[in-house]
Amino acid sequence: MKTYPITIELNGEARNTDVSATETLLDVLRNKFDAVEVKNGCEQGDCGACTVMLDGKAVNACLVLALQASGKAVTTVKGIGSQTSPHALQRAFVEQGAIQCGYCTAGMITAAKALLDEKSTATTAEIRQAISGNLCRCTGYKKIVAAIESVAKKEPATHKR
User: Fold this and answer.
1) CATH class name, domain 81-160
2) Which strand ranges, in their side-by-side order, compose the sheet holding 73-75?
3) 64, 37, 28, 22 alpha-carbon torsion, rounded to 10°
4) Which CATH class is domain 4-79?
5) Which residues pair with 52 in a beta bridge?
6) What pTM did the predictor assign?
7) Where are the domains of the chain?
8) pLDDT tens, 21-49?
9) What is the overall mean pLDDT for the chain?
10) Rg over CA atoms, the chain
11) What Cα–Cα distance (Å) separates residue 119 from each residue in 51, 57, 152, 159?
12) What is the pLDDT of residues 115-159, one digit of tens each?
């Protein structure tokens, strides 16, 4: 099978690999770059578990061919914050009790970050729209929306951290 070299800036670090024409960004992130924080849910773009930011826009990594991501910046939840320096959204999810099983959390936070980067004072309706492609089977979304709202109500400078 023919392969093609690609370079992706993953969470600020240039990463290189060879991919086939049919490999998805999800496959490359998980299997070649060990970015297992990007979850493999449905592989059909229905659940949002694999949501990443591609050049700042939220996308389902299962629907993007790796070749389409070449030369672009990919941000996962690990690129948003860390255990020692969590982003305001990550702190809010914990403080608001918006995490239960945790499977959807990385995709939810990534989708929320893309929204707040674009519109720092997002309304409840805009938040619900932004996360509408992310399924959660545990929480009922109320605490998730409250967590995102709590960050949206703060000064925009807090969205960066």
Assistant:
1) mainly alpha
2) 13-19, 4-10, 73-75, 51-54, 57-60
3) -40
4) alpha beta
5) 59
6) 0.93
7) 4-79, 81-160
8) 999 999 999 999 999 999 999 999 999 99
9) 94
10) 15
11) 18, 12, 9, 10
12) 999 999 999 999 999 999 999 998 889 999 999 999 998 856 555
